[in-house]
Amino acid sequence: MFRILANGACLAALALACHAAEATEAEQCRAVRMAEPGWNDLAFTTGVANVLLGALGYQPQSSVLGINVIYEGMKNNDLDLFLGYWNPAMVTYYEPYKKDGSVEDVRVNLQGAKYTFAVPTYVWDAGVKDFADLHKFADKFGKKMYGIEPGSNQLMMDAIADPSLGLDGWQVVESSEAGMLSEVGYEIKEKQFIVFQGWAPHPMNTMYDFKYLTGGDKFYGPNLGAATVTTQVRKGYLQQCPNAGQLLKNLTFDIDIENVGMGYLINDGMKPEEAGLKAIKLNKDRLDTWLAGVTTFDGKPGLAAVKEKLGL
């Protein structure tokens, strides 16, 4: 009887050891390579992911890269994930990688977003309410429209190239999100004409009095560029790193948390990880959903570990 019990205990111990081994991610999954294009909404959400992954025992790395570079990086196995596929604004960027299967969708992580051309309300009142109105005021705009980081303004360039809009000779002024918004603030103060990339979620919607232009369906999609944001990974990542993949399947946001979180970056000068940590501490009830079925890198209960690590 003793021998039977001993054998049974050994088998049980072996089963537990095997289960722990299965629950532990492969070593190649420890480093999680992320990127975002320098947009504050994606800097914030990537910051949240960075904090959660770090608290789970991973070694997250985040880079700021052009959108085209991000997709090439995932295709070439230099990057693992991207939290910022704006659909439909990025369709033309994503299409080749979707077609060859090198980049895969995980889930929609934000609904209710929008993205299209915008002008100050006084410009709207002057008659610029649609993409088709821009050419009528070309001199007032100086034949310029203001974009963000190079590599993120293709839709503006596509609009300029469309002969139906009469924008021949216009140029896109590329700088950065912060640079564009600084210019917007200056031109509004001076009551000058300016057209720029506008989107929500973003604190700009409460910082400045502006309107979104109609007529951009061909470029940004219907309903003023109504958009969703999707988490994407390189091919095979979810299978190779299923625990990190489970976190990505769980991780969703909403307009309110992003507007506030982006304010930490823009108005308070926080770094993305600092903003992510503050948002997590103020929304700790979300951890139950975000960490459902997720363990630490070495297989321990994820929710308890994150709360302990972050002092929650």
From TrEMBL:
A GO term for molecular function = choline binding
Q: Which InterPro entries match?
A: ABC_choline_sub-bd, ABC_Gly_betaine_transp_sub-bd
**Spans through the membrane:** none
Gene Ontology cellular component?
A: ATP-binding cassette (ABC) transporter complex; periplasmic space
Gene3D superfamilies, alphabetically? Glycine betaine-binding periplasmic protein, domain 2, Periplasmic binding protein-like II
Stretch forming the signal peptide: 1-20
The ABC-type glycine betaine transport system substrate-binding domain is annotated at: 32-275
| NCBIfam families in the record | ABC_choline_bnd
Q: Write down what this protein is called.
A: Glycine betaine/proline transport system substrate-binding protein
